[in-house]
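Step 1: inspect the first sequence and its tokens.
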Amino acid sequence: MSLLPLLLLLLVSSEHNTHAQTITQGATITAGTTNSSWTSPSGDFAFGFYRLSNGNFLVGIWFDKIPEKTLVWSANRDAPVPASSTLRLTTGTSAGHLILTSSDGNSTYLYQSTAASSGYMQDDGNFVLKNASPSVLWQTFDSPTDTLLPGQVLVAGRKLYSNKNGTVDYSTGNFMLEMQKDSNLVLSAYHFADPGYWVSNTININNVSLVFNRTNAFMYLKNTTDIILPLTEDVPKPTEDYYHRVTLNDHGNLQQHVYQKNNSQWKMVWRVITEPCTVNAICGVYGICSSPDNETVSCDCLPGYRPLDPNNIAKGCYPKSKPDRCIEKPSLTNFTVEVIDDADFPNAGFADLGRVTPTDEEGCRKALMDDCYCMAASFVNSTCYKKRMPILNARISRNSTNGYKALIKVPKQISDGGGILNGDHHGGKKSVSRGLLKAGLFTTAAFALLFAALAVYYHPVVRRFIRRPRRPSADVDAMLINLRAFTFEELHEATCGFTTRLGRGSFGMVYSGTLVIEDKQIEIAVKALKKIAAAERGEEEFEAELRAIGRTHHRNLVRLLGFCNEDKHRILVYELMKNGTLSNLLFKQGEKPSWEHRVEMALGIARGVLYLHEECETQIIHCDIKPQNVLLDKNYTAKISDFGLAKIMMKDQTRTNTNVRGTAGYMAPEWLKNAPVTTKVDVYSFGVMLLEILCCRRHIDPKRVEEETEEVDLVLTEWIADCIKSGKLNMVVEEDMEALNDFKRFERMAMVGLWCVHPDPPLRPSMKKVTQMLEGTIEVGIPPLLYPEMV
């Protein structure tokens, strides 16, 4: 060989570390042993088993030369494995697959496609699998977790997810960075269906990607020819003397860090959010964020609330008690108002109830106390912005909230100076005195005796003989504060005469339209109730639906914007869900939604049903949970729709007799027995739908019915149960590589679905337990449906 070709060969082989240590078929590493990782040629990075503080391991990549051993990628962040687990590039009949085998025998494929002949841990932090050519078959740079490294590109459709709690908990956190297909780079609190608290505003520019430049360590948005938006402002030089990383941290901030080689610690050189408390939902529901230096973040609970997890207040808070907010004159007897100086509740993430302007602080306090549906308010520049539950994004931010005041309505019996007021944060006012508290308790006790006497007097036996004249519901009058009352003429104009049909909903047709409110165009869906239904159901039914829907607010429920109750016209106005039904997404021909998106949708729907059952003020049984009644907004967030069939229950009720409702296939067996139904009918329907979401196929496939097939997979629940009993559940997703690579979670969620569809209602779990099992916070036992003889 001549000298020139030899030199060219050496140059090519050295570029991007293709001369890295070769991992051949049969190579194996074991967690907790000296042979637990494969290192890059320079030793800068390692790929293998990363030890957690609890003794379990993640399959990950980390900076290996520095004391911090900083993790930059993980394959199993939500499912760590114990010591003695193995990672192997397989041989034999399934040669060239990368498989993780836990010490308990369960296996997960990190890569399972065209056989890889070798693997390499490169000096740029990228682990690659190649064929004999050699061409790259799979690389970790294509599936980032929370970090980007120099040379890495985030293309359209790819996402970063924060860790849950720094280096304590590496599991998937609350924040997401997405390079959207419309070319917008968006940071969002995705659990709350947040449209984004930071956006690049690079929308509708073709082929935009987020690039972390390998040479100069600058980060920018770039299309095929130009830099569209530079992000990094400066990095220390020379670049090669430093390690570099960009990470979406557990506080929702995208930050760039450098580490001088042979030095002591990481240093931040750039961040996209300069005021940390402007990150949406950073302290969870009913939490409040404070950041006096705009560097550190401190979470606390609003007055009247306590932390869900005392060890991590950022998870959010819940009310210390839930008094009836809309009893007669509640403000005079049950509540006081606490004020936090230099604090605010920005609009994003929760509903406004209107504004009062011009006014002063006392006028804002009065507006808050007079509105039983209002739980908080912001007083800003002579304007009072009223808020309702749930309260998100409360913040004390050094620059953004100076001079603002946050007002919170707190039940007197729990107005004890706790939460942020007791910590002397920014001059917050103290709660009521001990003397006033005692007086309040005495008054409450007196009223309790009075109410007890009234309860005896108005016992149902007595009430039967008392006929009171009917008057319009006070709650519907109050709804005018929550919901807008439209005239029929307004809605007729907004829908162009009810011409564009979206479909048929409960009791009537649904039309699309556009409203102009305060010079803004809002797209709406209008449900016109059938005349027969309206006449039969009457005012009482219509008002019940208004009361129920108007008081609900959850990211996974379709929001009611207003109503029309004019003459014979009964019309409900909803936010428009642009992407149609979940049914169309799951069962249409062509590309199915990604596994991660299906998991997100299943969890969101579960949380929405849980809210209806246990968390909203008036308990609601939906009675017709199915994919056709789950709609998708512009971000493809799943939202439960159609409360026209819901049976409204008071908090102290557990069962209700009602006519058979629901849809065949999703209907719980007790409907057909004319037995009193409970919330467990929704659990059954959710279980059927959950299995449909996991498998992207209908519970009963019409094609198989038409073909009169006798295959065991005719009914989805029965097929999955049979596959689990025979140990062949992988057959269900054998053509779904994403689900197969996350088989442990698929198996867990499938088992939850079988728990839900047990024919005996008491054996079905509550939606709270269903949600916990889906999230992985409690164990999923063997569903009794699999082994009925053991029940």
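Step 2: inspect the second sequence and its tokens, then contrast the two.
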Amino acid sequence: MLTFGNEHRSDTILFIANETGTDSMRWYEGIKIFYILSGTAHIHVEKNDHTLTAEDFLVVNAFELHSILLSENSEILEMCIPLAIISRVFGSSDPHAFDCDSSRCRPEQEQYLATIRRIYADLFRAVYKGHQDNTAYIFSEVYALIDLLSRHFPRQHAIHDPLLRKQNARQLQGILSYINENFRSDLSIHAVAQANFITSNYLSRYFHRMVGTTFTDYLTSVRLSSAYGELVSTSKTITRIALDNGFRSTNAFIKYFKNQYGETPGKLRRDLEENPPAPAHPTDDARIFQALLRHVSKDANANAVAPDITRLELSVNTIHRGKPLSQTWKNLINIGYAREGLQADVQEQLRRIQREIGFRYVRFQGLLDDDMLIYAENEHGEPELDFTLVDLLFDFLLSIGLKPYVELGFVPSLLAYPQTRAFRRSSYLCLPVDEEKWFMLVKELIFHLEARYGSDQLQTWYFTLMSIHCAITDKQQTVVDHAAYYALYRRVYRFLKSRGAGYRVSGPGVYSNAIEEDYLWAFLKNCAADDCLPDQFTLLCFPYDPIHDKDYFRTICAPDLPYPDALSPDEQYVSHLTDTVQRKLRDAGYAIPSLALIEWNSTMWQRDLCNDSCFKSAYLIKNITENMDRIWGMGYWTANEMLEETASSSLDFHGGYGLFTSKGIPKSAYLALCMLGRLGDHLLYAGDSCVVTRRGSEIQVLLHHYCHYDELYRNNYLLDPNAEHCYERFVEKGELHVSLELTGLGTGSRRIRRYRLGREYGSSFDQWLSMGLPPQLNREEVAYLKAAAQPAYHVARMSVQNTLTLSAQLAPHEVQLILISQ
């Protein structure tokens, strides 16, 4: 279920998108309007049944009992208009009710239906765009909607007393809640009646009148629905499922089940095992709102809200040296997989990154994958090792000043079980089937690296296992053996520490939204007990709702499928995550020297066009400056675009992770990191949208205007794959106007250099849009876009009498760097 709007406020519109399935009987104090986005919906209201198809809608009045049954692959959106808003229109005492089922309306009413669809779509857009606080607009639209319903779709027959309707609804809700909470027991109509202080005879008549079915039939349907869920999602026996869901015997359960679903429980389970349902592709789901949004009025944006200018006034005293700044975000960069580090284009990008930014460590996955040609076995099953490609990779990295952050993963195919690749590339995310051979491989790798680079050099690197989420032990990629992972980690930890006390071992690479999981804290508890706590606590930071291992490996690891969960609404996700992890580690008494985000991005999907847009530059600036020197490293995932996890794209700008496109065109995200790299070594000020630093006599001011994803995109983040619609996915904001007063500068002339990065200057993606989105870039076009990937530059001199006042205007997603020197 997706929710748009603030469900805790009684004075705002709320939209809810239902999942496919059966909905229990319920009621609402305000008005609901159900809109069918796709498929077919059967809605029961009081004693009436309504069958609606795509783009039909139905009005359900206050306190009317209703239930919903959606056919397969159907989607429905419900708009909830609370009494607090309705009372502003009619007053609280006026019991207005409406009779509007668009599928049953007369032809002459079609013009009114079109207007209702337009208002419905405009209100939905206003809510997901964050305009719900514009109460004047919301109220005017709701007033127009209710006025139209009152004049053209009034309820013709007498309206019951609303107070009595409310009492009836609440009584029935109590009865249904009691049934739903106790259906697994030997529940009788007498027990339900007694719990609700009525007689059995009254309950029998009342239940049939209000719900439209008998008590016994309703109880059986509730039990069957629960049993069906357990049948398809657990390995329980059919007898156990029957008894756990209140059926007196297995035979009775099978009889009722076949009557309801047309086949026995055993046959259904066999059918599902032989033909498991394919995971739903979010791209298909993402289009469901388009049928509604095409009804949005052309001037909806102008009518909804005119984005206000945000004004920021600051004063910073530069006479103080400030707080020392190490810029720890430069500690770590990712290049994806080890084999990609041997490609000429990736190496050229890394050389440029080192020249223009200068990172300290580089991390990559798949060092032990088959494509690195390390592990083989002879005809007797004896291991044969070859570290030639490892040497080529590490020699190159060290030659450009990058130390390896060595991840010991994944598992060569000869040692892998299950023999199932998680991605298109040759990576097996699982525990080794033969731990002794795998551990021998790790030991020989370390011996080889020591012989080639020296133990002292290796003790300046970091070593880690693959993520704790990769401890897969079954073919369906649903079972994660955390105990086996810990045993392997402990063994590697002790071996590395035996080679030298300075060897640094990090872990466990837990997803940021799994930090509450018991297995993480069991891992750390075992580490503390065995004296093998990691030297660095590592996280994979992706701002999603909670990720569960089996869901992750059945979706994101399936070829070409994105992760379907919602993006977080928290604009300070990284900061709040850092606070939470540091607090939890401290409270638990685990003295781990540092915290690192070894993978970090705003998305887990390599077709998210926000990765290419100016959004990503403001996103990086915002999160890095908010967490300056709080985290050992913020390993952006990734520097390059050559990942083989999904099918390749013919488009140069297709939403890939990289700081560069596959043809080496810098994205605005890369230019933003270059700007960050020019900050000084002492921090004078860090606040909302602004950071001020100094290096020697030069002052650096970095500004950004961040706009978060809007609510619709967060909840269904593949809404529209069309690049030209990319900037419609964010909360709409006006310009940011900054007035910054720098004091303590003394007297004299100052040179002011200003760099601007935004949609009009420096963004190769926006330049590509203006070129007409050519699908295949030729050499001339690539050269043009590479040359265009430069921020706008302006230089001036200003006289200063101790104080310098700077002003700046930033469009949404824009970044500015201002350098003040002698």
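Step 3: confirm your contrast with the notes below.
The chain has three domains: 2-152, 162-274, 310-821. The CA atoms of residues 242 and 253 lie 6 Å apart.
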